[in-house]
Amino acid sequence: MAAIRELSMMAKYPFLPEARGELAKYGITLESFSDPAYRRVVERAKRRILDAIEYGDDVNPSSISDDDFVELASFPLSVAMIAAIGDKRLARRFALATSSLVIKLLESENPEWRDEMVLRIARDFFGMDVRRDSRIVSGIAYDYSLGLKDYLRGALAFNKPEWKLVNRVVERGRVLVTAHELIRLLKDRVMEHILSLVEKAGKVGALPSPVEEAIREIKERMPTAIQLELTTVKSGPETWPPCMRTIADRLMAGENISHFANFAFAAFLSNIGFEPHEIIRFYANRPDFKERIAKYQVEHIAGLRGSRTKYMTPSCSTMKTNGLCIKDGALCGGIRNPLAYYRRATKKIGKIDKNKAEVGGERGEAGGEVIGDSGPNGDTPSDQQISGNPR
Ligand code: SF4
Predict the structure, then answer these.
(1) Is the pTM higher than 0.90?
(2) Ligand 1 site, residue 325, Cβ cutoff 6 A
(3) Does residue 142 come out as left (phi exceeding 0), alpha (psi in the -120 to 50 range) or beta?
(4) What are the angstrom distances between the C-alpha of 166 and each of 15, 151, 155?
(5) Which of 326, 344, 385, 389 gets mutated to test ligand 1 (max ligand atoms within 8 A of its CB)?
(6) I need a surface site. Which of 96, 176, 206, 302 has the fewest CB within 10 A?
(7) pLDDT tens digits for the chain (391 residues)?
């Protein structure tokens, strides 16, 4: 397929190589943005980032500039600004908002253009195995067929039953999809690509003062990251199994994790006595965090809504099936449920604390003064818990 040639299309999909090629013709460098002639480009780059902060997934295409050049040039500048700010959580939020904007624009194209662009992005740019395949099966009008591998790579992340392979029309290793479904699958690819662009931009050197000024304003509008003091949250994470600690670390870093991982972690916290508002705090760094939805879901898991049944923490074998077990359980001493790790660890801490209190009492010392001492086996409490096998 021929590359897109129209400036208006490149302006809408500025992550494509032809858009970069078009921009190169203008000979613009970062230094160029010190020129007041490019003020609108800097403003639009700033707006792209502020929209991501304010709206995330709900970003509205109405903020797009009516000047194609401004739209085209502001995209790489916004990527450079994100790289210069160096906040991973902001980078994810920006990638989410940008990919969301791309799919909204694709959805709004007239069907002919949409088909052209969808194939250009899916097949030519991301190398997906996509073919046009227009037909109606069981009352559903399909537009494309997708190779099984590409289908599964995207669809496995979705929870809704209609994405499950058993509910799909599969013929000779190809899955039929509607245009809307293919565009949804593209969203995650675009998001990954934008993140890779930020990563490639790496360390950005000195920036022209209008860009620095825009960055200052963005930083002022950035919400403060939720940095939970993991050592001070109740039932400290040193008592949590490696799988749950890993999920917690990834959430704190603002990474998107699978639906199942979200569920398993919330169910685990709920089962060890965390209240819904305490659980929600862990999710606040996600790029697509929406408090109302998170509250509803967590309350559901905690048995405060719907059937009023509190969900159990998934078993270790289910965690393994979902790729969430760490080192195939080697750190956990043959347990069957993550809760068993927690119970053993808290029991062990109780014993260690008791021993320390007794030693301190005999010496006439406060318990806190012996906290750095070795435990009964010559290792520290935290060594014992982190290296596993709490009994
Ligand atoms: S064995 Fe169980 S508790 Fe330990 S990491 Fe695997 S899933 Fe988690």
Answers:
(1) no
(2) yes
(3) beta
(4) 34, 13, 12
(5) 326
(6) 206
(7) 445 668 888 899 999 988 888 888 888 888 999 999 999 999 999 999 999 998 888 888 888 888 999 999 999 999 999 999 998 889 989 999 999 999 999 999 988 889 989 999 999 999 999 999 999 999 999 999 999 999 998 887 777 788 989 999 999 999 999 999 999 999 999 999 999 999 999 877 789 999 999 999 999 988 766 555 554 455 667 889 999 999 998 888 878 788 899 999 999 999 998 889 889 888 887 777 888 888 888 998 988 887 778 889 999 999 999 999 999 999 999 999 999 999 998 888 766 555 555 444 333 332 222 222 222 232 222 322 222 232 2
Q: Ligand 1 within 6 A of 264 CB?
A: no
How are strands ordered across the β-sheet holding 170-171? 130-137, 140-147, 174-177, 170-171
